[in-house]
């Protein structure tokens, strides 16, 4: 009895130690604007370990300089050969973050979660303005095929995807078996795989489902558009989606509406496309230990 | 003397696209002194066609990059079409591209009264044609740069992107 209590206590201590291994990823589509000041404010206020900017018109060298001057000299640009689409900054070398695969609108990086090496796939889906829904869903299917290849080629099963998918979590490409197979709840994803046409497909978990609508803490989505490209008003185009083996390491995801003291919202509570970006940033937190 | 045999078909040459890509893989390994290889990934397109995704692999670093895909019908290796990676590049990064002018928009086309023939230069009907187009695809500047980027050793802390985007790069959203 005493021994089991001691074991439980030791387990708690280990868990607490791993709590300090929390890592944060900030992803933001900055809509080709110079939002360097806001990026620095976000880096400072969130203490994000990794910052990924999409559609950033400012050179990554300039953004890095601003981050180093205003937030932390620890920031660096991780090793990469395809820095055109994603501008990536890291201040925790233990995470690794080096690029292992350059795909079509994707960049896959090593990402250390505690004792485990995992993979982080940065994604920029085909844009809504120039591609119809069928084409974007087809992209999701080839994306699923690509990350499957990378996992097998690198011998690493744990993989998560972060980015602007230009699809909503409920769009077919995100949840078809041959697409990203991303489920709404952890318990759905916990089944591990499902069989379709005689072939098993690994489940992914999409926590962005939980952030839709009025009954949530933050805004109802990451993008607001009432044109014919946004029939629901709010869309959740910026997402994190994770392989079921990553779920135990997942802490939470948040849609951010402030960069330090500055609001990223307009007076209606929508993304302030005039003064900031038409996308809200998202902040994803992982912990180093498996808690489930 | 009449010749009713279809031209371009040689019964001694019936290699499938996958077999030709296997040959290409060996060629890459030989010519790069085993620094590079090709990884061939079988997949299925959304339309149910067979797809082979071709990735380049830099063996010392184990980094990979997707180069192109080849699509054909499930049980018929030809016709086969190549989809190079550069199809997705903004015009800014292409050495040359076609910019349509007003003369391209005919009244008939606008009214939908007249059809037009669209040529897909990446479709091959025979193994020899596929080989030739595969060589063309591997020589696209975007694929060459992808390979060179894989081979280059970019150290952390090195700012890798100092270029400013140009004005004609289309916004994506």
Rg of chain B over CA atoms, rounded to whole Å, is: 20 Å
Strand content of chain A: 25-35%
In DSSP terms (H or I, runs of 4 or more residues), the helix count of chain A works out at 6
Shape of chain B: globular
Low-pLDDT parts of chain B are 157-170
Helical proportion of chain A, percent range: 10-25%
The sequence of SSEs of chain B as H and E is HEEEEHEHH
**Residue share in helix of chain B:** 10-25%
* Biggest sheet features of chain B: 5 strands, antiparallel
General shape of chain A: globular
Largest beta sheet of chain A, briefly? 7 strands, mixed
Total number of strands of chain A:
18
Average pLDDT of chain A, rounded to a whole number, is 89
How is the secondary structure organized here?
The complex is a heterodimer of chains A (292) and B (173).
Chain A: H1 2-19, E1 23-29, H2 36-46, E2 50-54, H3 60-70, E3 86-90, E4 96-102, E5 106-113, E6 116-124, H4 133-154, E7 159-164, H5 172-175, E8 182-183, H6 186-189, E9 193-196, E10 199-202, E11 204-205, E12 223-225, E13 233-235, E14 238-243, E15 250-255, E16 258-259, E17 262-263, E18 282-286
Parallel strand pairs in A: 1-2, 6-7, 8-11
Antiparallel strand pairs in A: 1-18, 2-3, 4-5, 5-6, 7-14, 9-10, 11-14, 12-13, 15-18, 16-17
Chain B: H1 17-31, E1 36-44, E2 50-58, E3 63-73, E4 76-84, H2 107-111, E5 123-124, H3 127-138, H4 141-151
Antiparallel strand pairs in B: 1-2, 2-3, 3-4, 4-5
How would you explain this protein's 3D organization?
The complex is a heterodimer of chains A (292) and B (173). Chain A is of the alpha+beta class. Chain A contains six helices and 18 strands. Chain A has a seven-stranded mixed β-sheet with strand order 4-5-6-7-14-11-8. In chain A, strands 3-2-1-18-15 form a five-stranded mixed β-sheet, covered by helices on one side. A two-stranded antiparallel sheet of chain A has the order 9-10. In chain A, a hairpin with a 2-residue loop joins strand 9 (193-196) and strand 10. In chain A, helix 2 (36-46) crosses helix 3. The longest helix of chain A has 22 residues, at 133-154. The model of chain A has no long low-confidence stretch (mean pLDDT 89). Chain B is α+β, with helices and mostly antiparallel strands. Chain B is built from four helices and five strands. Chain B has helices spanning 17-31, 107-111, 127-138, 141-151, and strands at residues 36-44, 50-58, 63-73, 76-84, 123-124. A five-stranded antiparallel β-sheet of chain B has the order 1-2-3-4-5. The longest helix of chain B is centred in the first third of the chain and has 15 residues, at 17-31. Strand 4 of chain A pairs parallel with strand 3 of chain B.
